[in-house]
Amino acid sequence: MYNVIFIMGVSGCGKSTIGQLVSERLKIPFFDGDDFHPQSNVDKMSNGIALNDEDRYGWLVTLNKLANANLEMNSCVIVCSALKQSYRDILSTDIQNQVKWIHLAGSFDQIVERINKRENHYMHSSLLQSQFDILEEPQNALEIDITLKPEEIVAIITANIEMKSEFGLFGLGVMGKSLSRNLAQKGFTISIFNREVSGIEEDVAVNFKNNHKELATAKAFSDIEAFVNSLQTPRKIMLMVNAGKTTDSVIEDLIPFLSEGDVLIDGGNSNYLHTKERYEYLKAKKIHFIGVGVSGGEEGALKGPSIMPGGNKEVYNLVQPYLEKIAANDAKGLPCCTYVGEEGSGHFVKMVHNGIEYVEMQLLAEVYSILKNMEKTPDEIAAILESWQPYCNSYLLEITIAILRKKEGEDWLVNKIVDKAGNKGTGNWTTIATAQLGMPGTLIATALFARFTSFYKEERIEANINFRKEDSKLELSIQEVQEAYQFARIVNHYQGFKLITEAGKAYKWHLNLSEIARIWTNGCIIRSDFMVELISILKEEDTIIKHKSIVDQLKILKPSIKKVVANCILNEIAAPCLTDSVSFLNGYATANSSANIIQAQRDYFGAHTYQRTDDATGKFYHTNW
Length: 625
Ligand code: 6PG
Hints:
The chain has 4 domains: 4-161, Rossmann fold (3-Layer(aba) Sandwich); 167-343, NAD(P)-binding Rossmann-like Domain (Rossmann fold), CATH 3.40.50.720; 355-588, N-(1-d-carboxylethyl)-l-norvaline Dehydrogenase, domain 2, CATH 1.10.1040.10; 593-625, Single alpha-helices involved in coiled-coils or other helix-helix interfaces (Up-down Bundle), CATH 1.20.5. The strands form 4 sheets. A 7-stranded mixed beta sheet has the order 8-7-6-9-10-11-12, sandwiched between helices. By secondary structure, it is α/β, with parallel strands linked by helices. The longest helix is centred in the last third of the chain and has 30 residues, at 478-507. 54% of the residues lie in helices and 10% in strands. Helix 18 (426-436) packs across helix 19 (442-455), helix 19 (442-455) runs antiparallel to helix 25 (576-588) and helix 21 crosses helix 24. Bound molecules: 6-phosphogluconic acid.
């Protein structure tokens, strides 16, 4: 994929010659910007009058249209002085990410000397000086010294444009491999890297490349310097390595070979606070850092994940075409990738995604447990869940149905899986974040603690003997279980989005909740029909539990959740998230709660003071109890 190549520099820097040579070499059309001036500009210039910004505006817009039109077909080389950033902004409107800037740079004296050598080329030195005066050095341009020979300049440009990969993928674990294939399938030229660990990880990148035909043009490396040098500048390198210390050490390994303006994209499940720290650390080195949440597991990464990027918006623009192209599409065909906000907001949102995911998984596990206690086999439970799909379908519901149907010999595989649930830490962080932000993310904590409880297997076996249960006598209909499940899911999504809202306020991120719901409608683990509903609800109301349609739904579902939870408690069946969902709503919907007692207790033993219901000023009182 070629970009539109803009070759810029002051008059006399040789841009037309170089532009023509590059166009011949790359076999793409060449346009000299000067040929597109309106007659009024030509007249002014031939009278030795310098153009002003107003004269230039229409001309620059024309060149931008020319670039856009050529981009649709293939690409082109356009030469234009483009001395000011504002001119370059007009030239690259709507195509910022597909434009490659080449700056032919030389000193005033060098240019004067070159001009004087040329026949039929005269330029008054004051006119040239005025160009140097307004020249704003471009950032992110490939700067080339005009004293090099034309063929050397062309070689540098073509090596940078033609031979080097557009995008680098560092780390070929499960997700890194899938994302590499996805990028290559979308037509991007990529370089891939995996470390070499003798006897453990050998020739990973090369073998992986050789095993997948879409990677034929990819470049495979186990040497960091060679990998970095194989990339076009500014380099765009996506890190798909373990979150935590590994991410930091990989960044340290890369830094010596990176250049100013390069972009590192952390696609791991990194802690959002670390993302902010890394962003600041790299900023001091003039290296950009984007923290990107990626959801969808191995298959999603290959076929289209949901992508949640956070960081500086302008830097995001540099990587946007890649991320949007590899992302899943929503029902309207839009990419499930959107700029989330500043700093670690992308990773924060991914973390909350995982918190919601933990609860959704736990709720299905609780439903399974209830139906199992109603003496249903895994196949029967799968059939029941299947019958729920028209009302509350989700990816997690779908996979749970498939899981329940999987047999090994005569028995179902689920019956053979040890009931100890693992975790990699994101649910932990979400729970910590709810506490830090003072937000009652009760379900997320409950789902996390349910996993921790599951890990006490030996103690559970002992407790099971000590507190032996009576046989269950659940008096529930399947519809009541389904409605209880739907009730709890609504509370889960309320809490998840509320947590995002609170973080947005606390960190001053400008988050668009409806857009976040939209990018969660496909590609990610928590995609569901309800998430699609939330796109429009969140346009009207951040606190979804206040939205009329949600209030109406919860009212209809409430009798079932009360009955299901009551039955679980009476029958000693653990259903912590279902139970918590209704307890939470009971507390949330209590206008006059028992927190007055807490305040009185605090004041009694610690003189912490309290506010009074009969004093609207909010003044704090202390009583000598
Ligand atoms: C996703 C998943 C993914 C991964 C989690 C699982 O969105 O694709 O959330 O990120 O499966 O790391 O986390 P636990 O191991 O903590 O369950």
